[in-house]
Here is the input.
Amino acid sequence: MKKIQNSSPNLVLRLDTSLMLSFLITLLSLVSRLWQKAVLWFFMTTCVTSCFVLSVIQSLSGESRC
Here is the structure.
């Protein structure tokens, strides 16, 4: 009886850790995909915004280099 009680929490713990590991891996892959999209979107918007701001500044100052 003692052996079963001792081995059962270990099994549950192993299942928990494997479940947690698989969950973490899934979460990490999802986050990395979202992160790649977010970084791409951030760079695109930053480039567009900086170009727009530069053109506005140049048109205000009277120069047109863009």
Observations:
- Residues 2-61 form the longest helix (60 residues).
- The two ends are 81 Å apart (CA to CA).
